Amino acid sequence: MLSSALVRLRQVTKSFGSRQVLTGLDLEIRPAHSVALLGPSGAGKSTLLSIIAGLLAPDGGSIERAPGVETVWIVQNAPMLNRRSALENIMVGALSLGAAEGVARSKAREAMQRLGLSDLARTRGHRLSGGERQRVAVARGLLAGANLLLVDEPTASLDADSRELVLRAIHGAVAASCAAVVATHDDEVARSCDEQIRLRDGRVT
User: Fold this and answer.
1) The whole model's pTM is what?
2) N or C: which end of the chain has fewer CB within 10 A?
3) How is 101-116 classified by DSSP, letter by letter?
4) Which of 143, 162, 186 is the last residue of a domain?
């Protein structure tokens, strides 16, 4: 039984060839709760996100998902419509749910304001900096209507002010009953989450 959990992992294992990436991992993801995944490169953070998203099958253990779980994965270096404006790129999140263009535009403008992007509304994707593209990706993901956010290094290219805006937006979604799993190398980002899990050699330490 899942009770209130959206996703529950029990004794999950995963290896690639002879390399064991995850070993007996347990994790419960609940609504209105944020989890930070910490660990060095190669610790298994991205593999775990892929398994949670259903994009990768574990070798062993079990995964239970509650009915109605909708997942969006906000990745580093997210694909961008380079010939479209930042506003149009963000609108994609709402349009994917069937929102009318006017509604999608209004929601995208609100998201841009929350993430300090309003001045870039008409800037085309190929003219955005790495940090600006990252914030656009976060804004787009937040409009996709998911109740489970998987976020991979959301602040890696950002200055302190932009990082604060991104964290505020993610935790705002959590306050509105989303769950968030955030992979990060940043201890400050991790401390902002409700729970911290540190991975090393495929295990929780």
Assistant:
1) 0.91
2) N
3) HHHHHHHHHHHHHHTT
4) 143
Both tokens of 24, joined, read 């007996």
| 24 and 86 inside one domain | no
Distance in angstroms (rounded) separating the CA atoms of residues 94 and 96: 5
Nearest one of 179, 161, 155, 140 to 49, comparing CA atoms: 179
User: Number of folded domains in the chain?
Assistant: 2
**pLDDT tens for residues 18-59?**
999 999 999 999 999 999 999 988 889 999 999 999 999 999
CB 7 within 8 A of CB 53: no
* 151 and 62 fall within a common domain: yes
The tokens describing 115, both together, are 């993430």
Pairing of strands 60-65, 7-16: antiparallel
Residues 94 and 192 in one domain: no
